[in-house]
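Weekly modeling sync, notes
Attendees: S.R. (lead), two postdocs, one rotation student

Agenda item 3: backlog of single-chain predictions. S.R. asked that every request posted to the team notebook include the full sequence so nobody has to chase files. The rotation student volunteered to paste the first one in as an example of the format we agreed on. Action items at the bottom.

Example entry:
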Amino acid sequence: MPSQPLYLLFAGVNGAGKSTLYRSGLWQRNAPAPEIPRVNPDEIIAARGWNWADPAHQLLAGKEAVRLIRGHLAAGRSFNQETTLSGRSALRVIRDAHERGYRVVMHYVGVESPQIANARIAHRASCGGHFVDPALVERRWEASLANLRQALPLCDEANLFDNTGLLTHVACAQRGTLIESNRDAAAATWHQKVIDSLASKEGTT
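Predicted structure, as returned to the notebook:
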């Protein structure tokens, strides 16, 4: 019997620290995850030698990411993806994977405010990394948290990390039900409403 395919997401607004979490391996809390294809427009641009400041290259990378995701889903292949989780397409892919029988696992990285994300993006850009318009980040920050609440019931497992200061694991949910809460482990409050929205199995949160 073929094993269940895995859809592994690293989600959060630009500048939150998705790539940092992925590279750190801290998300592999119980056992190392299998090596699977990765879809990330930033990495597509870097691999092609394109310019992140060029809107045409951004569009091409986005189209390539969509093509790869559709191909993986159609073939029932496991893959991992980085997403801001701020658009409707992100929720559609999660729902599609869920309906196709994928095991959906999301690691969401949040920060207390869009201003923190923008400060990190500005620093990244000063070091040669890509820039994202601050107004766009502000819109995505709100939309990403709203979409997170909609996505949680579709995720077989979802881990929330606060990266306002030190990267900290603050909650784990399974199919929209809170399994573990470390809400006091981080000084930030963005995750509090998310945790409160989950049906708790702990009795107290």
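Discussion: group reviewed the output briefly. Helices lie at 18-24, 41-48, 55-75, 88-99, 114-126, 134-151, 190-197.
Action items: rotation student to repeat for the remaining queue; S.R. to check formatting next week.
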